[in-house]
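P.,

For your records, the input lines for the assembly:
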Amino acid sequence: MIERIWAWLIASSSWVGPDGIGARLGEHVLFSVVVVAAAIVVGVPLGLWIGHLGRGRWLIAAANAARAVPTLGLLFALALWVGPHIPGRWAFVVPSLVALLLLAIPPVLAGTYAGVEAIDPAVRDAARAMGMSPLRVIRQVELPNAMPLVLSGVRSAMLQVVATATIAAYVGLGGLGRFLVDGLASGNYPMTAGGAILVAALALVIDAVLALAQRLLVPAGLREGGRERIASGRHTGNPATAGDPTVSPAR
Amino acid sequence: MSRRVPRRIVLAAVVGASLGLAACSGGGDPLASGSTSGGGGAIVVGSADFSESVVLAEIYAGALRAKGVSASTKTNIGSREVYLRALQDGSVQVVPEYTGALALYYDPKFAETDPDKVYAALPGLLPKTLTVLSKSAAEDKDSIVVTSATAASLGAATLSQVGSKAGGLVLGAPPEFKSRAQGIPGLASTYGITFKDFVPLKGQALVQALVNGQVQAANVFTTDPAIAVNGFVTITDDKHLFGSQNVVPLVAGDRADQMRSALDAVSAKLTTEGLTALLKSTDVDKKDPKAVAAEWLKAQGLG
Amino acid sequence: MTWFLDHWDEVITLARQHAVLAALPLAVGFLLALPLGWAARRWRTAYPILVTASGLLYTIPSLALFVLLPLVLGTRILDPLNVVVAMTIYTVALLVRTVADALGAVPEGVRSAAVALGYRAPRRFMTVELPLAVPVLVAGLRVAAVSNVSIVSVASLIGVTQLGDLLTDGYNRAIGGELITGILACLVLALLFDVTLQGLGRLLTPWVRVEQARGRPVTKGAAA
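Structure tokens returned:
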């Protein structure tokens, strides 16, 4: 069986065409990147704002609670109720993308907020004492200091999106999930398993890329501190674990 | 110190065991099966993942119970490709099937279209462990339907007439339709039909997509009440690609005698109109398949 | 609402199956994570390896894991065991780091005191370090529980019966009430898990309440 899966994975016929691995992989990456980018555009400013003002914390609590919503249910609900109102082929794309966005925002939002909240008040006071305007405080002090946790939120969101985009094949979305859903429906296990391997590999590669980005984007002065935080178990750079504010529902 | 060694061994054992599990991954196909049907005992009725199959499974189970055979259901297993394997590996002992589709599954070149000849050919095609009981008069075929507006603009009543005109249409169908002999490959080889695009959808999502114009053609069953409810037009399958599709119980051979009298009685009462009415209850009136099945059995004097 | 009232018995049955598929892996995963987390704490070199490995495992999307496990386990695709093993893997992946960090958060003074009292490693672990780690462990378990309840519903795509069936059937037959019921039932189940674990954590750490009552700062776990 392993040989048959391998044969499917390396066959050139599996890779070419509009429903080949190449195209599906491209779709999957495109959907994921677009959705997470949108989640950053929404989540980061909102998280900074809440963290800066210390108001609207219920939004963070709500975002954390929303993580208990079954992703499958969210997908189906949007496909069932939003899909019919969208014309043409977009009807099978937009509901899924909206569902993915709704899943991607909470980790980014919670990560940003936690990052701002964890900043030593003395740092903020110093910035204010230097005569920085509130906007400058946010841009030059709070955002850089929050960066490790913002990025860990982004990683967490990306994982969630790559995984859920796979399931969205069930409601007609393209991407690598098609191989899993179509393979199961047509009893083609090599295709099903091959697709699953590709999805897992994609998730690992994207996560590794983001881990690298995390390293490059975190200001040098914070790296040491960041590691200390990790060691103390308070926050972590790895989105997969419980120390992550973006995963933890209880705060 | 003396305590640490065993712990290390435990750790090594855990890691080793998991690696071992990974290494001895059997060479088998998890979607495939052995042939381990048991004898005697309770019957599990399986079904495909569409309403008609589910309600038929509930009817079979109800009829069996009425005859004193202990029976339960395992519905929504999946497509034919999946539930036939569940039947062969003994997870279920009977599934509602369709004569032509079943024949074509085991013989991709199967071309017979006469209902009785199709039924007569089945025993020769099925794996040795499986057999069919009496077929019913009820027929449910695949069909290609379009909205009345699309039908008018196409100006085609038969699939032959559609031919190359399909190039502007997007087809919605269950995922397995894409690779099935009676699906897209069959439409291309029999009628020269190639759709502009294919969207994998099923159930009500497919019906809604056709109504909303997100797909222009859809693969639905001829018994689907959505056709009448939405005024869809069925394009005639003039070259009989979709064959003859009488509802028939497909059973594990060693359990056939246990089920024969109950299920033959069901097949004797099933009609195409009856099927459509059953489907209207489940899909349009949204009643539970179990309740719909019980009602039908009672009405037929089988419950 | 009417849909739920007409089908509450079915919902309860499915919820029970769902609970087992989420809880069993939680328990097994926790028991597996304990020695692994302990090892990660004990040996410096083990920490990055174990934590990275568990992070990688958690990265694998659920549907992919469900589908690949039969290949590793030799099970059939419809076998619920695939789901149990997959959820156990996710639980272990989430908890290894939690256990390691929770044990690491035990104040050094307390540990030294235990050593001075003559507690050997195993006894120290069972009677001092583990109880003090409970708040952090419970926090980790709550995350894993909520995550499990959500992910288990995906298993209905591979034909394993639980609350996710309400989601797929509600979608396939366009029954809004059924879909909403499925979502709410999953949420309620997640909440039940959360409350239970929280209560369990409180029961296991009576000293927290005592200290709070005395108005003393509580010895908190690092992630509290």
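Two observations worth noting. Residues 81 and 176 of chain B are 9 Å apart (CA to CA). The interface with chain A takes residues 25-32, 78-82, 85, 170, 174-176, 178-180, 197, 199-201, 205, 208-209, 211-214 of chain B (CB under 8 Å).

Regards
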